[in-house]
């Protein structure tokens, strides 16, 4: 006998028309609000614009709800003005939904990276995404080699954190806005979150801190969720420093905590509105394509600023 479907207003999620910029946090609060028992319906009818960060966080949330043995229903899909874009970004495929497409697919290389699950080996995934956003950059002499290396490094470091620490499933997506000259990248998972990952290795300070403070701690040098490994815990630190040097924007959301690093170098800690709790971690960023071409210089300066490299030398500072 089929399972009865239980509907509840709290479980009916109507996506807003615009999910980008300042509208991203209210959207994450919408995903993170408490649900009642039963199935979940996601209504796409009003959606008009969305960024990669929203797409991957929604995909991770859908997977989480299904893991909770809920059925997830998509409504208003054919009324959605950007249905073709969502299909090109493989959002529905990532959620296990096959839909007929009324358009011809063209090569995405150089334009966007459709939603993909974060899987091993991570370095191959990073190189694959970098090759899509910076075609030809795998060749050291190519003009896009610096952009290729930057994207591959960032994806690999954040992807490794998802695979090693989250205990959940992660998704990645990216796109290039050639008109604005900006790269937008995002990775989201539905795992335990940053604070709980620190608590799982019994980091003493983690028992009396907030989710936002745990995010800030994760961006400090040599703060790792791997106990007893002093050289661990530099990946997110260097990613954060590099994005700042590129005058980029960085958003990290985990639990109810929010860290925003702005293009002017300022950094703030906040909480999700309406008491919401985002299950897992979202890391989203955007940065100028031209600045990202200086990969080696940005990485060297990030290591110096983080105390991992002596100024004026190429020698790394090794832990005893």
Write the layout of secondary structure elements.
Elements: E1 12-14, E2 18-19, H1 24-31, E3 40-43, E4 49-50, H2 52-67, E5 72-75, H3 83-88, H4 91-94, E6 112-117, H5 122-133, H6 145-166, E7 170-177, E8 182-189, H7 194-200, H8 211-218, H9 235-245, E9 249-255, E10 257-261, E11 267-271, E12 278-288, H10 295-305
Parallel strand pairs: 1-3, 2-4, 3-5
Antiparallel strand pairs: 6-7, 7-8, 8-12, 9-10, 9-12, 10-11
Helix pairs in contact: 1-2, 5-6, 9-10
Q: Can you count the beta strands?
A: 12
Structurally, how many domains make up the residues? 1
What is the mean pLDDT? 89
Query: What strand order characterises the main sheet?
Result: 6-7-8-12-9-10-11
Structure summary:
The protein is of the alpha/beta class and 320 residues long. 33% of the residues lie in helices and 20% in strands.
Give structural notes:
By secondary structure, the protein is an alpha/beta fold. The chain has one domain (9-97, 107-305): Histidine kinase-like ATPase, C-terminal domain (Heat Shock Protein 90, 2-Layer Sandwich), CATH 3.30.565.10. Helix content is 33%, strand content 20%. The protein has ten helices and twelve strands. It has helices at 24-31, 52-67, 83-88, 91-94, 122-133, 145-166, 194-200, 211-218, 235-245, 295-305, and strands at 12-14, 18-19, 40-43, 49-50, 72-75, 112-117, 170-177, 182-189, 249-255, 257-261, 267-271, 278-288. The strands form three sheets. A seven-stranded antiparallel sheet has the order 6-7-8-12-9-10-11, with helices on both faces. A hairpin with a 4-residue loop joins strand 7 and strand 8 (182-189). Helix 1 (24-31) runs parallel beside helix 2, helix 5 runs antiparallel to helix 6 and helix 9 crosses helix 10 (295-305). The longest helix has 22 residues, at 145-166. It is globular and about 60 Å long.
């Amino acid at each position: 006998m089929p399972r009865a479907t239980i509907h509840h207003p709290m479980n009916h999620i109507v996506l807003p028309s615009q999910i980008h910029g300042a509208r991203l946090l209210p959207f994450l609060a919408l995903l993170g609000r408490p649900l009642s028992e039963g199935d979940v319906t996601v209504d796409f009818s009003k959606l008009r614009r969305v960024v990669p960060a929203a797409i991957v966080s929604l995909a991770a949330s859908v997977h989480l709800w299904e893991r909770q043995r809920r059925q997830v229903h998509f409504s208003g899909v054919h009324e959605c003005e950007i249905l073709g874009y969502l299909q090109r970004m493989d959002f529905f495929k990532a959620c296990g939904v096959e839909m007929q497409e009324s358009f011809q697919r063209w090569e995405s290389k150089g334009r966007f990276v459709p939603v993909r699950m974060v899987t091993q080996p991570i370095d191959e995934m990073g190189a694959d995404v970098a090759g899509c956003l910076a075609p030809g950059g795998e060749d050291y002499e190519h003009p896009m080699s610096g952009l290729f290396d930057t994207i591959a490094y960032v994806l690999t470091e954040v992807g490794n954190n998802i695979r090693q620490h989250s205990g959940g499933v992660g998704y990645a997506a990216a796109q290039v806005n050639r008109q604005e000259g900006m790269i937008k990248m995002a990775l989201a998972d539905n795992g335990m979150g940053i604070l709980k990952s620190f608590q799982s290795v019994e980091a003493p300070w983690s028992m009396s801190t907030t989710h936002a403070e745990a995010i800030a701690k994760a961006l400090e040098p040599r703060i790792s969720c791997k106990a007893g490994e002093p050289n661990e815990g530099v990946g997110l630190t260097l990613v954060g420093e590099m994005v700042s040097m590129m005058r980029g924007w960085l958003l990290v959301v985990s639990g109810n905590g929010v860290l925003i690093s702005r293009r002017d170098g300022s950094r703030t800690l906040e909480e999700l509105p309406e008491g919401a709790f985002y299950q897992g971690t979202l890391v989203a960023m955007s940065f100028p394509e031209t600045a990202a071409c200086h990969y080696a210089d940005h990485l060297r300066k990030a290591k110096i600023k983080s105390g991992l490299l002596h100024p004026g030398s190429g020698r790394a500072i090794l832990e005893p």
